[in-house]
Design goal:
The chain is mostly beta strands. The strands form 2 sheets. Strands 2, 4, 5, 6, 9, 10 and 11 form a 7-stranded mixed beta sheet that branches. A hairpin with a 7-residue loop joins strand 9 and strand 10. The radius of gyration is 14 Å and the shape is elongated.
Length: 120
């Protein structure tokens, strides 16, 4: 079983910063992809940022230049540094990890989500 622990959400004023952290564990594996989606009520989850095990990264256009995803110090850990936050960034942020299997498909495991509320 794979467990994901998220932390770092909360209330922040517009223009402020927050850092989300994600740690996946429970058994021995190497995540092929780690990242975050976000979701607001009534809407589908949308990709925010993801990081591949070859070091490449992908960002949604609406966070480019403001958010930075990075590997953590431990295995299967990651962080999302969010800066210049806007009220439109208010959402539940979900960390995920992808675990490759042979044969495919890969398994995607989701965290419980953490609230980010950007408001004055």
């Amino acid at each position: 079983q794979v467990d994901i622990v998220e932390s770092g959400g909360g209330l922040v004023q517009p223009g402020g910063s927050l850092k989300l952290s994600c740690a996946a564990g429970g058994r021995d594996f190497d995540a092929s992809v780690m990242g975050w989606y976000r979701q607001t009520p009534g809407n589908e989850r949308e990709l925010v940022a993801q990081m591949f095990n070859d070091g490449s990264m992908e960002y949604a256009d609406f966070v480019k230049g403001r958010f930075t995803i990075a590997r953590g110090n431990g295995k299967n850990t990651a962080s999302l540094q969010m800066s210049s936050l806007k009220p439109d960034d208010t959402a539940v942020y979900f960390c995920f990890v992808d675990i490759d299997y042979d044969p495919p498909p890969a398994l995607r495991v989701w965290g419980q989500g953490t609230w980010v509320n950007v408001s004055s």
